[in-house]
């Protein structure tokens, strides 16, 4: 068991429901050490997105304690949440790029909201987009990019501010196996430099190939399973 | 420059705010005209009141049997009484021609004025603003010539004062209503804009944007639209005032207040569009901050 200061995400008896609806997560107990890599698996409707929403502070638990970076988030004043969110990078399943902004401006958003200088923003974003192979598409709007290119923009936006936690919700859902594999190697690289990675996926092949621990959700209940690398 | 600031939200596709410049223009137009009207009326009434201050009018009735010589003696007697009063500086009989001119709109220019037993009017100029003891003066005048009336204009001044206050209050009430209507319109359009941009706002929140970062974008847009509307409204209202001033100055009628505004009045008028811009911007910001506080 990792010591307390190494745990970056901790759930204690967490339950979650939307409004007055039924509970979608039940008694979740979870500890993610800093620098770990986990896959989150489970059938559709098992609560994977809800669990991720709790981690990236888009939702609050109905009961239990969610502890992020050593802080009980339910006790934190609302105005402190942006500072925590800046430490989390998210790749949404549908990318959620801002349609009227260029690829460069989309990726620049996390830096701009945190008040970084514009020359620094331009330089970092251009370098990163070049690294993901989009040097020629800096000014392109998302609608003019292919699905794979949009995904790379979304990933670049998630990692531009070097987050402590990277969350990806079904990042391989819309791409072929070859691209999916390349994507996972990118996440592996981030993991190697200390980023805690959580990837929700249905792709059993990838889970087995990379052999990281698996968090499995079934009917709102969580179980932790060891990884089985091929 | 703040007006040219880049925005992360796509305000171009936000139809809810397209009316804001028109509404602000209309509100500024109405506010400027209401304020200018109120100021002109107040200034006119003050002018009338000042005209009545320091003067009074004495009416010496004609004797029962009209007799010019006798009336002249009676008038002379009244003037002596008046001059003996410590507050009186000058007492002057208003010539019959002046009275005829004053009555001309009602009685015409025929000989009717001469035929009527009109009282002789004495215009009295006071050393101070008003008589120290009007009742005593009245008693002395009536004792000299029974039926003599003294009008020290006090009642008029009081009525004018009350009217000026009422005009000022009505002016402020109209400005208040215009401001309240503007605030409501900006609140509703901003709330509609927040709904339109709900998804983008959620993304901005998720990547770590503070509420004030998002509010600043709405506030900048409100500033830009409000400035445009206020500029148009101010230009139109000043054009209207210029026309009213041109037409008003052509009227030689003492019954109407002269269209005249002092420098301080113009400062207040120029402040109207600036206040409208400020009101629009601050309202947009506060509305956004209030709504965002309810989000996670």
Helix/strand order of chain B: HEHEHHEHEHHHH
Structural class of chain A: alpha/beta
Low-confidence spans of chain B: none
Label the overall shape of chain A: globular
Instruction: Output the radius of gyration of chain A.
Output: 17 Å
* Main sheet characteristics of chain A: 6 strands, mixed
> What count of helical segments of chain B does DSSP give?
9
Task: Please provide the count of β strands of chain B.
Answer: 4
Terminal residue distance of chain B: 32 Å
The counted number of beta strands of chain A is 10
In what range is the share of β-strand residues of chain A? 25-35%
What does this protein structure show overall?
The complex is a heterodimer of chains A (230) and B (296). Chain A has helices spanning 48-55, 81-85, 103-113, 118-131, 147-159, 177-192, 204-210; strands spanning 7-17, 23-33, 37-41, 63-68, 71-72, 88-91, 165-169, 196-200, 213-218, 221-225. Chain A has 230 residues and is of the alpha/beta class. Chain A has a domain at 100-162. Chain A has a six-stranded mixed β-sheet with strand order 6-7-8-3-9-10, sandwiched between helices. A four-stranded antiparallel β-sheet of chain A has the order 2-1-4-5, covered by helices on one side. Chain B starts with 19 loop residues before the first helix and ends with a helix. Chain B is elongated. With 296 residues, chain B is of the alpha+beta class. In chain B, helix 6 packs parallel to helix 9 (263-293) and helix 8 (211-249) runs antiparallel to helix 9. The chains are: A alpha/beta (230), B alpha+beta (296).
Outline of the structure:
The complex is a heterodimer of chains A (230) and B (296). By secondary structure, chain A is α/β, with parallel strands linked by helices. Chain A has helices at 48-55, 81-85, 103-113, 118-131, 147-159, 177-192, 204-210, and strands at 7-17, 23-33, 37-41, 63-68, 71-72, 88-91, 165-169, 196-200, 213-218, 221-225.
């Amino acid at each position: 068991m990792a010591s307390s200061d190494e745990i970056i995400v901790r759930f204690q008896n967490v339950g979650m429901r939307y409004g007055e609806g039924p509970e979608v997560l039940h008694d979740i107990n979870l500890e993610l050490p800093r620098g770990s890599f986990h896959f989150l698996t489970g059938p559709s409707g098992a609560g994977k997105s809800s669990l991720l929403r709790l981690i990236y502070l888009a939702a609050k638990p109905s009961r239990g304690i969610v502890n992020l970076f050593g802080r009980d988030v339910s006790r934190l004043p609302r105005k402190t949440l942006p500072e925590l969110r800046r430490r989390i990078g998210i790749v949404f399943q549908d990318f959620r790029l801002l349609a009227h902004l260029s690829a460069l401006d989309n990726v620049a958003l996390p830096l701009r909201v945190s008040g970084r200088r514009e020359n620094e923003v331009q330089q970092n974003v251009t370098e990163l987009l070049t690294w993901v192979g989009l040097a020629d598409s800096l000014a392109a709007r998302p609608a003019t990019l292919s699905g794979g290119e949009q995904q790379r923009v979304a990933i670049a936006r998630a990692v531009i501010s070097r987050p402590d936690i990277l969350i990806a919700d079904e990042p391989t859902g819309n791409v072929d196996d070859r691209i999916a594999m390349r994507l996972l190697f990118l996440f592996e690289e981030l993991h190697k430099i200390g980023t805690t990675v959580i990837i929700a996926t249905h792709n059993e092949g990838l889970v087995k190939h990379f052999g990281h621990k698996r968090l499995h959700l079934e009917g709102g209940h969580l179980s932790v399973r060891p990884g089985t690398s091929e | 420059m703040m007006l040219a600031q880049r925005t992360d939200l796509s305000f171009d596709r936000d139809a809810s705010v397209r009316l804001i410049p028109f509404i602000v223009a209309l509100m500024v137009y109405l506010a400027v005209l209401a304020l200018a009207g109120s100021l002109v009326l107040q200034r006119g009434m003050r002018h009338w009141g000042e005209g009545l201050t320091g003067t009074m009018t004495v009416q010496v009735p004609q004797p029962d049997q009209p007799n010019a010589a006798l009336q002249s003696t009676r008038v002379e007697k009244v003037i002596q009484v008046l001059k003996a009063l410590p507050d009186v500086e000058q007492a002057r009989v208003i010539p019959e021609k002046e009275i005829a001119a004053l009555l001309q709109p009602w009685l015409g220019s025929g000989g009717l004025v001469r035929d009527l037993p009109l009282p002789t009017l004495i215009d009295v100029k006071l050393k101070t603003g008003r008589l120290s003891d009007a009742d005593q003066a009245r008693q002395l005048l009536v004792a000299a010539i029974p039926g003599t009336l003294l009008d020290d204009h006090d009642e008029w001044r009081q009525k004018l004062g009350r009217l000026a206050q009422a005009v000022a209050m009505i002016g402020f009430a109209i400005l208040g209503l215009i401001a309240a209507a503007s605030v409501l319109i900006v609140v509703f359009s901003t709330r509609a804009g927040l709904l339109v941009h709900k998804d983008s706002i959620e993304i901005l929140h998720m990547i770590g944007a503070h509420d004030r970062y998002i509010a600043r974008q709405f506030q900048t847009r409100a500033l830009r639209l409000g400035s445009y509307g206020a500029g148009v409204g101010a230009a139109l209202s000043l054009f209207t005032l210029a026309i009213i001033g041109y037409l008003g100055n052509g009227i030689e009628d003492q019954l109407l207040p002269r269209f005249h505004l002092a420098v301080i009045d113009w400062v207040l008028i120029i402040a109207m569009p600036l206040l409208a811009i400020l009101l629009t911007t601050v309202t947009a910001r506060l509305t956004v901050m209030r709504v965002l506080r309810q989000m996670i």
